[in-house]
Design brief:
MAG_DAG_Lipase; hydrolase; eight-stranded mixed β-sheet; 11 helices; Hydrolase_4; hydrolase activity; alpha/beta
C-alpha cells in the first residue's frame, strides 16, 4: 500500500484541508471515500482502510475542518469556522473531484461514512447526483445518526448564538446538555465517552488519541452538527436522494445517536418510502456506536462492507 499526502483549500476560506490517498499494489477495482465522524479523524479507520486497499480499492479520506491533522495544522481544534457543515460537505466534494481526476471516472465509486460522517455521506451522495449529475455505486452508513435530543429547543439556542455573532467557544455546561444524554444507558461513567463502545480497550484508545477532540467546542461547531442532523433527516431530504444508489446500514441496537436502533430503521424506511430501491440494514444486538471498532465485530463489519462494495466485482477474493 502506498500512502500519498494531499492538501487543498477548504471551502471555509480559512483552512487547508489535510487528506490522504491509499493505493493498492494491483490495478484498483474501485474507489472508497471514507468519511470520519464528529470529534475524531480518519486515521482511526486505518485497519479498515488497509483491508479495503488489500481488496483492491483506492481509499481516500480527509480530516474535516476543525478535526485531526487539519485542525492541528491550522490550530483550529473544535472550530469548523465560517461555512459550517456546508463547507465540510463541499470539502468532501472537492476530494471526490480530485480523486476522479487522479484515478479516472471509470472506476466504481463508493462511500463509507460513520456517525457524523454518515450524515455527510448521505448529503454528499445527494449533491453529487443533483448538482454534478454524477452518481456513486453504493454508500455504507455506519453508526447512523438521527435527531436524538428530547429538547428540540437546543438547536434553536445554538442557532441564535451563531446568528447573534456568539458562535465562539461554547460554555461546557451548555455543550453537555447536547452530549450528556448519550450516556443515559451507561451504568458506569468515567470518561464520558462510554456510549461509543462496550469494549474497554476501544473506549480507552478513544480517550488517549491525541488527534481526537476532548476539549471545548465552538457554539458554531455544535450548531452545525445539530443542523446537519436536522437537515439530512428531514422528509424533504429523502425525496432528493438518488433512488438507484444502493445503501447499506450497519449499527448497534444500543447506540444512542441511532435511538437504540429505532432511528436506524426509520432512516431505512424513509429511504425506501422515497423510492430508493436497494436498502439493507444490519443491526448488531447489545453493541453501541462504534461497531466497526469492536474487536469481536470489526472483521465482520469489514466483510459486510466488502461484500456490498464487491458484489459486482468478479476480481474480489475474500481476504
Amino acid at each position: 500500500m502506498a500512502i500519498y499526502d494531499i492538501s487543498f483549500p477548504s471551502a471555509n476560506k480559512r483552512d487547508t484541508v489535510m487528506a490522504n490517498y491509499y493505493t493498492p499494489l494491483q490495478e484498483p477495482i474501485g474507489i472508497i471515500q471514507v468519511i470520519h465522524g464528529f470529534l475524531e479523524h480518519h486515521r482511526r479507520y486505518s485497519r479498515m482502510i488497509q483491508h479495503f486497499v488489500d481488496a483492491g480499492y483506492v481509499v481516500i479520506a480527509t480530516d474535516h475542518i476543525g478535526h485531526g491533522l487539519t485542525a492541528k495544522n491550522n490550530n483550529t481544534f473544535g472550530n469548523v469556522g465560517k461555512g459550517g457543515y456546508e463547507a465540510v460537505i463541499q470539502d468532501e466534494i472537492t476530494l471526490y473531484q480530485l480523486a476522479r481526476k487522479q484515478f479516472g471516472k471509470e472506476l466504481p465509486y463508493f462511500i463509507f461514512g460513520h456517525s457524523w460522517g454518515s450524515l455527510i455521506a448521505r448529503c454528499l451522495t445527494e449533491k453529487l447526483h443533483n448538482m454534478l449529475e454524477e452518481d456513486i455505486s453504493g454508500v455504507v452508513l455506519c453508526g447512523t445518526v438521527v435527531p436524538f435530543l428530547k429538547n428540540d429547543s437546543m438547536i434553536e439556542q445554538f442557532r441564535e448564538k451563531v446568528e447573534n455573532g456568539e458562535g465562539g467557544m461554547c460554555d461546557d455546561t451548555l455543550a453537555a446538555q447536547v452530549f450528556k444524554p448519550l450516556l443515559a444507558r451507561v451504568e458506569k461513567v468515567v470518561n464520558g465517552n462510554e456510549w461509543i463502545a462496550i469494549d474497554e480497550g476501544v473506549i480507552q484508545d478513544h480517550v488517549r488519541d491525541p488527534l481526537n477532540i476532548t476539549g471545548s467546542l465552538t457554539c458554531e461547531t455544535v450548531y452545525n452538527f445539530l443542523a446537519l442532523n436536522e437537515c439530512v433527516n428531514a422528509p424533504s431530504f429523502y425525496e432528493k436522494f438518488p433512488e438507484h444508489v444502493p445503501v447499506l446500514q450497519v449499527a448497534g441496537d444500543q447506540d444512542p445517536v441511532g435511538l437504540y436502533g429505532e432511528g436506524v430503521y426509520r432512516v431505512a424506511n424513509g429511504l425506501r418510502n422515497a423510492g430508493v430501491k436497494d436498502v439493507t440494514t444490519i443491526m448488531f444486538p447489545s453493541y453501541r456506536h462504534e461497531v466497526h471498532n469492536e474487536p469481536k465485530l470489526r472483521d465482520v463489519i469489514i466483510e459486510h462492507c466488502l461484500s456490498f462494495y464487491c458484489r459486482d466485482e468478479r476480481s474480489f477474493e475474500k481476504w
